[in-house]
Design brief:
alpha/beta, six-stranded mixed β-sheet, transferase, Hexapep, globular, Hexapeptide repeat of succinyl-transferase, 177 residues, UDP N-Acetylglucosamine Acyltransferase, domain 1, single chain, Trimer_LpxA-like_sf
């Protein structure tokens, strides 16, 4: 019966990835994840202790990001003691976490941070950090990154454009027909 319930949960979570962001967030909140306002979450991989995860306001979490609130390797010491090692994860306000990142237990990411795709993050990261790598470390400042984006040859203002208008603008900018 436990196996069937687990399979149903996996199928439901896969379907949620295709549904609205609001439905995903509502489901994750029911699982115990503390989620602020105006967030966009494109993953359903919130460990076996989702109630140990807190996400601030205006945070975006890209696809295939995984959260681990426990360390399963404690199993190697099962002859000496039996138990689990867990820790909290806290994500601040106005944070972007890139695709396929891994956020490990005992991690705090401050406000106004960017986590590069594929990063493995563990520890405490201050406000206004650009974080990336394996293991992840602070590589830049949030405000410097904003200047880099603003001055990038690839920066295009797509505010209030329809998807087709956005596509035309991008194709024109890069000479793609």
């Amino acid at each position: 019966m436990k196996l069937i319930k687990g399979l149903i949960k996996q199928i439901y979570e896969k379907l949620l990835l295709r549904s609205s962001p609001e439905k995903r967030i509502r489901y994750l909140r029911k699982q115990g994840v503390k989620i602020g306002e105006n967030c966009l979450i494109n993953t359903m991989q919130f460990s076996t202790e989702p109630y140990l995860i807190e996400i601030g306001n205006r945070t975006i979490i890209a696809s295939d990001t995984e959260f681990f609130t426990h360390d399963g390797s404690v199993h190697c010491f099962r002859d000496e003691f039996d138990g689990i090692v867990c820790g909290k994860i806290k994500i601040g306000n106005n944070v972007f976490i890139g695709a396929k990142s891994i956020i490990l237990m005992n991690t705090t990411i401050g406000d106004n941070c960017i986590v590069g795709a594929g990063s493995v993050v563990r520890g405490n990261f201050p406000d206004n950090s650009v974080i990336m790598g394996n293991p992840a470390k602070v590589v830049s400042n949030f405000h410097i990154q904003k200047l880099i984006f603003r001055n990038s040859k690839g920066y295009l203002n797509t505010t209030n454009l329809s998807p087709s208008e956005k596509e035309r603008l991008i194709k024109k900018h890069f000479g793609v027909e």
